[in-house]
Amino acid sequence: MTAVAAPSVASLVQSVDWLAIAPPTIAAVVALVVLVADLFLGERRKALLGWVSVAGLAAAALALLPLLDGDRSTFCLKTLKGEQTACSYTADHFTLVIQFLVLAGALLTALLSVTGIEDAKNTPRALPEGEFWFLLLSSAAGAALLPASRDLATLVVALEVASLPAFALVGIKRDDRRSSEAALKFFLSSVTATAVTLLGVSFVYATTGTLHLTRIATALTHVDGQFHTLAQAGVVLTLVGFAFKTAAAPFHFWVPDTYVGAPLPVAAYLSVIGKAVGFSGIILVTVVAFPSYADVWGPALAALAALTMTVGNVAALRQQATRAYSAVRLLAWSSVGQAGYLLVPIAAAAYSKDADKAIGSTVAYALMYAAVNLGAFAVAALVARTKPLNRISDYRGLYRSRPLAALVLGFFLLCLAGLPPGIIGLFAKVTVFSAAVDAGLGWLAVVMAVNVVIALYYYLQWTATLFRSAEGEQAVQRIPAPLTAAIGLTAVIGVALSGAPQMVLRFASTGLF
Predict the structure, then answer these.
(1) Are 304 and 343 in contact (CB under 8 A)?
(2) Is the peptide bond prior to 128 cis by the omega test (within 30 degrees of 0)?
(3) What is the pTM of this model?
(4) Are the CB atoms for 220 and 210 separated by under 8 Å?
(5) Closest Cα to residue 29, out of 134, 119, 163?
(6) Which of 81, 152, 172, 323 sits at 20 to 30 Å (Cα–Cα) from 122?
């Protein structure tokens, strides 16, 4: 009896590859350390929690370096002979690129937050430091876990671990009605999207009998005819939650109010890391799990891309320069438009023979967008220190009072517009455009070209505002070191990428899967 049972029991024993899971694990452990330390530190020493968080995110990012040697997997199903059949966690090139984007973006967000929390101290807008850093690190840990997930259960759990702390971060400003409303709207719409996604996951499981992405891909190629419609519905519904995270229309309505109600660093975090989570999830479920149903998700994503970029750019075009928080609203709607561009190559992957190349275009665009959008939010945080209403008209004459900040913001806006000297923005847009043309989606390429022209107007209008003469004296304050570092790092990255744009595409698309 014992001799028969022993091999079966042995096959259930898992050896965890701690090096593979180190990046999200470090972020999670530091989050717990910050939460416990907050109980014992006095008010004067709570600033240490921010720097511990910055150090933890830097350590998590550095933990990616030992993983560059080759693909690693853990939490795998094994046969009785010890052979791996499917894994729940894989640290391949795609995982490492997205984890780098997530952790580097979270690190820059943390630098912005150090300044924001310090400025809010001893005011009615003061933020609870321990809770803030715990929530930020927890969300970053979930976001870093998601691109490594290779089964639907882990994907959904990672999505919620990234999302739930984000709800609290949006509403963390106490006694602020706008913040509370934004958090509630964000929460209710996200929960609805998650419920729809779980329904889709249950349909996929019912038709395939597995949750592992590679096994789903195999099982979907020979689904019984009577379950074909159920499988199609599962594929579409599973995409909903990830489409919500990317702010794809019509799941975008939460974006402007949420960005305005949240602390500015949190809005920056959502605009970049939230999108990275959504797009990596969409890529995994479509290209890895549902390649045989490309005829279902390909047209759906193409339609979403066209609708999203059009809605985002038209709404950004309508923003009034003198309206309160118009700068943040314009960045919010701009992020919706950019989400449409990011969806184009994923849709193209359904029609392309080289899916890796198409997905590489999305990843390359995401890297460019992350750097310049975080930089734009960093300059917005700088302006908000003296002009908290953050209107576009408040940026008038910025070149006279802060010439470097104005030049940097102008560069970021030109990158987002795809104009020189923002060569990386131009290169990224051309790459995405080429992916659509190569896949035979000429109509989508035309829609994208029209939207790029629309976006040029409001990006150039804001850029021109920076160099107009200001009305009255401009208040000038010393820029805190963390904020200076965030602006400087994003500017250096943007300039470096513009100098070698091909390097980004090569880094993003080489051996993704």
Answers:
(1) yes
(2) no
(3) 0.92
(4) no
(5) 134
(6) 323
